[in-house]
Amino acid sequence: MSTPDIEVQIKTLPSAPGVYQYFDKNKRILYVGKAKNLKKRVSSYFNKQHDSHRIAVMVKKIHEIKHIVVSSETDALLLENNLIKKLQPRFNVMLRDDKTYPWLCIKNERFPRIFLTRRVIKDGSEYFGPYPSIKTVKTLLELIKGLYKIRTCKYDLTEDKIQAGKYKVCLEYHLGNCEGPCEDLQSEKSYNKQIEAIRKIVKGNFKDSLIDFKQQMQELAENMQFEEAQRIKEKINTLEKYQAKSTVVNPKINNVDVFSVVSDEGYGYVNFLQLSHGAIIRSHTIEMKKKLDESDQELLELGITEIRQRFDSPSKEIYVPFPVEAGEEIKVTVPKLGDKKAIVDLSIRNAKYFRMERFKQMKIVDPDRHVNRLMAQMKEDLRLSEEPRHIECFDNSNIQGSNPVAACVVFKNGKPSKKDYRKFNIKTVEGPDDFASMEEVVFRRYRRLLEEEEPLPQLIIVDGGKGQLSSGVKALERLDLRGKIAIIGIAKRLEELFYPGDKYPLYLDKKSETLKIIQQLRNEAHRFGITFHRDKRSKNALGTELEEIEGIGEKTAVNLLKEFRSVKNIKSASQKELANIIGEAKATLIQAHYQNTNEN
Fold it and tell me: 44-53 long-range CB contacts below 8 Å, 24 or more apart?
């Protein structure tokens, strides 16, 4: 399927937290952003005039929108950080002037300082970012300060000035936050070793720092320096805690490809997440047309091969939801629980969202394909012998047996066909008997269709359990249609589907499209039936009192109610006012009736 228009892509975005990516027509990345609600956030770019010329230029260049769905807004923020660092989108850097993103600077100087800045100066210093929020940078700086003793002063610590004794240690030294390089109490080599460790942490690589700290802790413990060992242990805990917060997945998961698949009758959707140092750095989903009746395993194996070749993946391990053949050099892991299982679940979630968006896009740009797929899916899910292109659903409506009515709604190709809806007044049943009422309306409906030689549906749905279903089946048997039209019942409480002759009901996935169509039919039949019942009950309630007057019929009562709006207003109307509507003779009858009523 070719890339749909931007308008279609926006309409089909999920209303979930995640990260969106804009690409131009040459597939070049333009921008990465985060959102609490992807659909709402992305739509805002296209729904208003932009004050910033750069944003306006960027929006004109957008040709394709991709996204990764995550569990929370926090995960979206962290994932956005990782992708910006990895992909370096042009407009994320260009737009920093408009939004003044914060950066982390490692200053180009002897004994480098590390600090937050909003200005990028080309003086040889290293800048990490831009970060989407200042809070993220401050958290990172607090972590660094807790782990390493880095100077905060602005002294020019050249070797000559230090040797000349120009500087004195400050309060930070006495508090234990600095080792005093200004008085030559710390070597440049020792200080730069800390800077290198910090540089790796900022890039998301926590492994070396953790190994170094654990080695220090071990040596201190062996030398019986338990207090110092405890301090190092606290630093390890701090680093591991931040590490868990600063990545969407477990940081121990490194250089791994994650794959999952969801499929339907005609297509498979394979999602790929690429992980590096515990962070997602790429997400991609492909749509694969089934040539034969391939299993999910076969589709996933094909997808893994295609995606790894496309992105030239060097990973030697893959996570998948079930065993696959991926070659002797690739380690295949099927996680059962924990963080590894969580990342496979996230991949499945993204594959499902991609599939849903394709369906939505299909409805807009290729409705025939959507209908064909939906009908094939319903045929399989409901175990039918043919596709249910024409479905009819029945519902009874009465209150304690009063004004019993029934409704029949019709769906064709999965959509309501309102011109074919039918209402029924129950004629042969006395009192509140839903089963007998169902048999009556099903019989009347299909007897008439047979008499008029109209097409019959492929599927009949009755609202109710086994009792209503049995009544519908009896009606079909009387018409010799049993076995010629499929009929099922749906019970409201657990959305159970009952089949004639089956002891146990069928349960469909609560999110399946088939169940949603059936629920829509049932709800529409209920709405249509209740509306008809209310209209009939209201009409009867209002007209009864007037129609009890000898000489006043239904038509006269309706005309009076249209004009005066209520029986109370009719009672208080003058004879002249009544005569203007229904004539002198009938007006006299009404006046006389209410006068007698008042006297009695």
Answer: 46/6, 46/10, 52/95, 52/98
Angle made by CA atoms 131, 75, 287, in degrees to the nearest 5: 110
What is residue 494's three-state secondary structure? coil
Give the separation between CA 498 and CA 490, rounded to whole angstroms: 6
CA angle 228/232/235 to nearest 5° reads 145
The Cα 195–Cα 449 span in angstroms is 84
CA dist 245 and 234 (Å) reads 17
| Cis upstream peptide for 102 (omega within 30°) | no
> Residue 349 in contact with residue 283, Cβ under 8 Å?
no
Host H or E run for residue 507: none
SS3 of 64-107: EEEEEECCCHHHHHHHHHHHHHHHCCHHHHHCHHHHCCCEEEEC
* Contact of 479 with 443, CB cutoff 8 Å: yes
pLDDT at residue 111, rounded to an integer:
92
DSSP one-letter code for 485: B
Alpha carbon distance 189, 264 (integer Å): 61
Q: Are strands 459-463 and 390-399 parallel, antiparallel or unpaired?
A: parallel
Say if residue 242 is exposed, middle or buried (CB neighbours under 10 Å; 0-12, 13-18, 19+).
buried
pLDDT one-digit tens code per residue, 35-75: 888 888 888 888 777 767 778 888 888 888 888 888 777 67
CB atoms within 10 A of CB 483: 11
Alpha helices (runs of H) in 280-366, residue ranges in sequence order:
296-310, 338-365
Q: 199-222: string of b/e by CB count within 10 Å (b at 16+)? A: eebbebbbeebbeebeebbeebee
Contact by Cβ (8 Å): 405, 398 = yes
Half-sphere exposure of 149 (CA within 13 A, CB side): 17
CA distances from 221 to 85, 147, 344 (A): 38, 19, 39
Residues in contact with 560: Cβ distance below 8 Å, sequence separation at least 6, in sequence order: 546, 570, 578, 581, 582
Q: What is the DSSP letter of 463?
A: E
Tell me the pLDDT tens digit for each residue of 460-499.
999 888 888 899 999 999 999 888 899 999 887 678 888 9
* Residue type (1 letter), 468: Q
